[in-house]
Amino acid sequence: MSAYLKSLELLSLSIPFRRPFRHSTAERSVSENLIVIAELSDGSVGFGESIAREYVSGETISGAATSIKTVLAPLLADLAPVSFPDLLNKLEELPLVGRRGKPIVAARCAVELALLDAFGRHFRRGLQEIVGWLGVPDFRLDGSLNSVRFSGVLSADDPRQITGKLRKMRLFGLRDFKIKLGTDHDEDILRAVHRPLARGLRSKRYSLRADVNGVWDLDKALDTFPLLAGFDICCVEQPLSPRDQSVYSLLRTKVAVPIMVDESLVLPSQAQAFIDERSVDFFNIRISKNGGLIPALRLAHLARKADISYQLGCMVGETAILSAAGRWFLSMVPEVTFAEGSYGTFLLSDDISDRSSRFGYGGRIKRPMGPGLGVTVDLPKLRRYQTALLATIAF
Question: Based on the domain organization, do 347 and 239 belong to the same domain?
Fold first, then answer.
């Protein structure tokens, strides 16, 4: 018997970090997340999550909630799929932009994940069902699980603190690292990270990439890239402002270190522009930033066809819900170069699931299991960290 969507509950969540996380454009000490709870007519409940960053997609939590109420909810009024593939067909029709052409990716992501989780439970299906539905021949059920490992990410702290954090990450078996740059102390930070990794970097046992979060202009990038090459940086993420998309072609012709885009890569149209111009080497795909799991999978397929490498990224402060979605992505997509996420209580002071969502020793993860996202949310804990009920939408 088919079930229909009965209601959506939208709420904001705030969980403190264990310690502040800094980069060139922000410092955060708490995670502020949008949670969507979907209830079906048969009592099945699903949970979705996104993190809205105004400097990434132009969204705030309250703005994303408004987009759900005014743009997405009317499209879901008669949602009663007769099968899990039928649900996927309907979810793919949900827009990534609002009425004025502005991205509503955080809004869409939270709704999509909640519906995948709720109807996955109703139909007793895990998200591996998406592989066959996508019809992409090289996407498969083992994906990148046997090859990729989660990375350690080092915030833009005092170099002495960075060295201590790096030591702990190495003791935990991590082999890929990312350092946040774009401050007045970039060279000191690079030296602090490079020194203990130097031999492993040159033998390819480790990798080190840099993330600038878009604070350089073209002249600053051209001046700094030679320095980065001397520290064995394997790629530079978002060196230029998201508004400088057209300048990437010029930058790529003048530097040797591969370039990754992140904040400049929100919508498929932006991805296609980078592909047409052959102006970057990597896409950073983040499920919340790119509108949900299905759009993220489509973006990975687009990159593969264009022979562009890609990583799974994450938003700082993801709870177990987005962490699970990331693991499903890795279980389906082959040749993911780097992975970020599933940090759980490595970063957060607490999480909202009944089990740890953290990756294991060496950055390894287990294959995700359904039904739905496969996460059991601890509802009393969720309510403990709830800061506001943004809306309840009845259908």
Answer: yes
Q: Does a structural domain hold residue 259?
A: yes
What Rg, from alpha-carbon coordinates, does the chain have?
Answer: 20
What's the CATH code of the domain at 82? 3.30.390.10
Cα–Cα distance between 70 and 393 in angstroms, integer? Answer: 11
Residue 264, in any domain of the structure: yes
Q: What does the alpha-carbon distance between residue 131 and residue 332 come to, in Å, rounded to a whole number? A: 7
Q: Is residue 342 part of a domain?
A: yes
Output the 3-class SS for 22-70: EECCEEEEEEEEEEEEEEECCCCEEEEEECCCHHHHCCCHHHHHHHHHH
Closest CA to 303 of 360, 260, 364: 260
Q: Are 237 and 183 contained in the same domain?
A: yes
Per-residue confidence of the chain (395 residues) as pLDDT tens digits?
689 999 999 999 999 998 877 665 567 789 999 999 999 999 999 999 999 999 899 999 999 999 999 999 999 999 999 999 999 999 999 999 998 899 999 999 999 999 999 999 999 999 999 999 999 888 988 899 999 999 999 986 777 888 899 999 999 999 999 999 988 888 999 999 999 999 999 999 999 999 999 999 999 999 999 999 999 999 999 999 888 878 999 999 999 999 999 999 999 999 999 999 999 999 999 999 999 999 999 999 999 999 999 999 999 999 999 999 999 999 999 999 999 999 999 999 999 998 889 999 999 999 999 999 999 999 999 999 999 999 999 99
Number of domains present in the structure of the chain = 2
Place of tokens 């991205």: 103
Confidence (pTM): 0.96
Q: What is the domain range of residue 316?
A: 132-363
Specify if 373 maps to a domain. no
